[in-house]
Amino acid sequence: MQELKLSDWLPTTNKEVKIRGWETLDVILFSGDAYVDHPTFGPAVIGRLLESMGLRVAIVPQPNVNDNLQDFVKLGKPRLFFGVTGGCMDPMISNYNANKKRRDKDAYTPNGDIGFRPDYASTVYSKILKEKWPDTPVLIGGIEGSLRRVTHYDYWSDQLMPTILETSKADMLVYGMGEQPLREIVRLLEKGVPFNSINTVNQTAVLLHKDDKIPKNSNWEDVEIASHEVCLKDKKKYASNFKVIEQESNKLAARRIFQKVGEKTLMINPPYPTMTEAEIDASFDLPYTRLPHPKYNKRGPIPAYEMIKTSINIHRGCFGGCSFCTISAHQGKFIASRSKESILREVDKVANMPDFKGYLSDIGGPSANMYQMKGKVQSICDKCVAPSCISPVICSNLDTSHKPLTDLYQAVDSHPKVKKSFIGSGIRHDMLVPEFNKNADPKELDAYTEEVMTKHVSGRLKVAPEHTSDPVLKLMRKPSFTYFHKFKERFDKINIKKNLKLQLIPYFISNHPACEVEDMANLAAETKDMGFQLEQVQGFTPTPMTVATVIYYSGYHPYTLKKVNTPKTRKEKDEQHRFFFWYKDENKAWIKKTLNRVGRQDLLKVLLPEKTEKWRKNKPNGEAKDTFNDAVPFNQRKQKVKYKSKKKRR
C-alpha cells in the first residue's frame, strides 16, 4: 500500500492548506467529532463529496469554544459557506447518560477523553460563526440537525425546543444523508444563485421571515402543522404534529411542511428519492484514507474508529420504524444498497491495509439483514404512508429474500486475505422466522441463519427482542415475543446440529412508554424461564424525532391521540429496571414486596422460588452488568471499548 502523505487528508490547519497550494477555501466544515477520514464518519463523507466536485475544503474538528475562539477564524472566510455538524451522535447523547449524568468518556475523541464537545454543539458552533462572520452563510446538518429540525422535546433540559434553525441562527439545514441536497446547493451557488435565494432544494429547511414570500414549486403539495407556540401550550397538538412529520419524512412523494415559529415560518422541503445504487456506490468509492488524521497520533486511539476500522457498511436506511429509534428519521425507511462490486472493492482496500489481521469486524448497516430489500411493485411503495414495512406485519409487497446477503457474505469470505468476517450489526431475528416473514422462502432463511451462526459470529449472537409484553411491543412497533421463542428454537437446532455451542444474547429495554412494573416482572420471569440472565439491558432514553419520545413528553400517542402511561420519575424508572437483576441479593426483598403488593405471587414463585433450584444459565461466565446509568439509545448502540484515560480538556 502506498505511503500516505499529510495532504491525503482534508486540511485542518493553515499549514495543511498551504501544502495543497491553496490561498483560499470554498467550504470550511466544523465538527463535534475528531476527524476520521472514513465513510462511516459523516464529516469525512461530506468533505470528500465537496472535494470531488472540485471545491477546496477544510475541516475544523472539535473547535475550542472556551478560549479566544481562534479555531473559528484561523482558516479565514470560505467562498461559499460554513458547514456545521455536532458529530455522528447527538452531542447530548455523547455527553450524558440516561440519568442525565455526565459521561466519563467520548468515543469520538482520542483516548475517549471528555470536554472536547460542547452541549448542543451545532447551535454553539453556528452562533459563534454567525457572530464572527455575519455575512457568510452557515449550513447545519448531521444527526443533531436532522432530529431537531422541527419543534422537539429535549430530554436533557426537559422542555420543548423550536427548530434548531431558530436556536442556532444558521441559514439552512440539510436533514438526512446530505450528499444529494449538497450537490444541488453547490451547483446553484456555482451558477451564481445567492445563498439566500436557494430555498427549493429537496431535503433542506429554512426559516422564512415575516415579509418573505413563500417559494413556489408546482411539484409539491403543502401541509401546515401546529405552531411552536401552540405546541408549548397544548401537548396534544404537539403530539399530533409528529404523525405528519414522520409520514412525510418517509414518503417518496412527500408534502412540504410549514410551521410558524414566532413571526417566522419554518419550511421543510420534501426529501430526495432514495439514493440509487450508483449514487451510494459513488459516495463509498471516494478516496478516503480510512484513518484518523495524523494530528491524533500522539493523543491515543479514537475508540469509535477502533471499533469500525475493519467494518464494511453495505446499505443505508431501515424499514423497521421502531418507536424508540431515530434511524428512519435520519436515513429514511427505504433501503439504499451498495452494489456487490463496490463492497468487494472496499473489502480489498481494507484487506490490503498494513495492520489488517484478516478479520472484518462487521458486514452490515443500520440493521444487518435488510440488504437489497425493497418493494416488489414500486408504484405501491410510491403511495405508502406507513412508517414501518414490517409492523404490525411484514408488507406483502416487501421482498425479504436473504439470498443476496448470503451470497455477499460468501463473496467477502472468498477474498484471500480475509480469515473471517463478523456480523456486528443488529440482526432482525423476527425476519428469520417463517411464521412472521411469510414472504420469504423458509429454506433461504435457514440458509442465512446457518451461514451467520457457523461463519460470522464468535461465541455469541446478539438480537433485540426489546420486551416480552405484547402491548409494549406493539407500541414499540416490534413483533410479539412469540417470534423470539420461535427464533430461539431454530437457533438451538442449528447449535446442536453443528455442535457450535453459541450463546444467544438478547437486548431489552425498561421504562419504555406503556410499560408497567408488572410488564417488567413478566419479562424477568419469562426470560429466566428461557435460561437467560440478562446483561444487554438499558433504560429508555428519550431522543428527538421518535414516537416514544413524543409519548414520553406529551402523554399521547401521535397516531391515535389516546393517552399512554409512561414511567417518568427516577423512582418509577429504577423500580422497573431492578427487575432485570432479580438474581441479585439486594433486590430480592424488594421484588418479593412488590409482587405481593400487586398480587402477582405467580411471578414471585418463578423468580424467587422457596426451594433451592438448579438453574442453568444461558449466558457466559461472569456477572451481568447494569448498563442503565450509561445507556445509549438503540439506534446509537456501540460495542464496549476500553479507554486508557479520562482526561478532561480545559
TrEMBL record:
Task: Please name the GO terms that the record assigns under molecular function.
Answer: 4 iron, 4 sulfur cluster binding; catalytic activity; iron ion binding
Record Pfam families: DUF3362, Radical_SAM_N
Where does the record place the Radical SAM core domain? 304-584
Q: Which SUPFAM superfamilies match?
A: Radical SAM enzymes
Cofactor annotation comment: Binds 1 [4Fe-4S] cluster. The cluster is coordinated with 3 cysteines and an exchangeable S-adenosyl-L-methionine.
Q: Identify the keywords attached in UniProt to this record, alphabetized.
A: 4Fe-4S, Iron, Iron-sulfur, Metal-binding, S-adenosyl-L-methionine
- The family this protein is said to belong to: Belongs to the UPF0313 family.
Q: Which NCBIfam families match?
A: SAM_YgiQ
This chain's protein is named Putative radical SAM protein YgiQ
What organism is the protein native to? Olleya aquimaris
